[in-house]
Amino acid sequence: MGKNSRYIKWFIALFSLLSFGTAGYVFIEGWNFFDSFYMTVITIATVGFGEVHPLSTAGRIFTIVLTLGGVGTAFYILTSIVQATLDIEFGAFRRSRMDARIRKLNNHFVLCGYGRVGEAIANTLKQQKADFVVIDHSMNSYTRAVQQDCLTILDDATNHDVLKRAGVEKAKSLITAFGDDAYNTYAVLTAREINPRLTIIGRANNDDAARRLKQAGATHIILPEVIGGMQMARLALSPATVNFIETVLSGKDGEYLVEEVYVGESSTLIGVSIKDIEERFAGVRILAVRERDGDIVINPSLSTEVEAGGSLTAFGTMEQLQAVEGCCSFNRDSRGHIVPDL
Fold first, then answer.
1. Do the Cβ atoms of 218 and 237 come closer than 8 Å?
2. Mean pLDDT score across all residues of the chain
3. pLDDT band at 101 (very low <50, low <70, confident <90, very high)
4. pLDDT (mean) for 103-132
5. How far is CA 24 from the centre of its chain?
6. Rounded CA gap, 52 and 66, in Å?
7. What is the CATH number of domain 3-100?
8. DSSP3 helix / strand / coil % (the chain, rounded to 5)
């Protein structure tokens, strides 16, 4: 129910209560309209004034009914009106502060949709201490996101101005997690138009939707049901291996992590072989190399040399990985990780 309709409902209820009381005194006691209205107001307001005219037995019974039913009703209506007004004022103040915080973000994530999938994504981003903004047009989703301390915009994620308000031009990545494939597609189209270099991860429910998302400009496409089925099969086949990989990727239960380290133009790692890197940073293992053209080499040979503009997927402790990152001339993101200068 909208704010205006709530006010209309409360004022109608208050008007009905006053009309009921006024009509009762007119018909029971035979008083004129003003005296009846005045008696109704002082009764439900419990101001303690005396009776306007002496009451008959029927009039006293009616006054008892009006007092018992009307006082509580009037108090509830007036309290609701005051509370709603305060909510509007404080809500505007809260949204203003939230918008100010969103404007300060840079290299953050934009999460479109805060359903079950979106909430799981947000929890993971929080765990990794990443900055992100949620966009959802549902009041229930918006309220839930705000209650969970997420920077949130209540609006249409397919709207050009709304995505700009979320800072998509400065964002590191956009994730569309709505259950509606068409909505995800339009959000991807709009985001790609605003930021052609943005990494976009889209949710799809079937292969046709995945194809449309790809055509719309999504960089990566996830089918939750397919991924879930594959994960269940892997757990059934190799539970220990899957648990190990999940622990390492999340970094929540152990010391070791897997991180992607970007190699800048002035990095001291340029031209250095994998063997030399692993010897220089004891305990670090290079699992993959992404070349400048985007090709990924899994389990590269020890003689492979690092190229500028590419990246290394490294395994090691947080301290070891930070030492490797320290050899790259990049800005740090909200998690303290190295990110490329775009």
1. no
2. 82
3. confident
4. 90
5. 53
6. 16
7. 1.10.287.70
8. 50, 15, 30
Partners of 220 in the β-ladder: 201
Architecture of domain 255-339: 2-Layer Sandwich (3.30)
Distance CA(108)–CA(69), nearest Å, equals: 55
pLDDT tens-digit map of 136-181:
998 889 889 988 889 999 889 999 999 999 999 999 999 999 989 9
| 340 and 264 Cβ atoms separated by less than 8 Å | yes
Distance CA 112, CA 153 (A): 10
1-15 as b/e: b if 16+ CB within 10 A = eeeeeeeeebeeebe
Tell me yes or no: is domain 105-222 CATH 3.10.129.10. Answer: no
Q: What is the DSSP letter of 303?
A: T
Question: What are the structural domain ranges in the chain?
Answer: 3-100, 105-222, 255-339
Its pTM surpasses 0.70: no
Local structure of 34: helix, strand or coil: helix
Instruction: Please report where in the chains the tokens 């994504």 appear, as a residue.
Output: 121
- The partner residues of 257 in beta bridges, in order of sequence, read 316
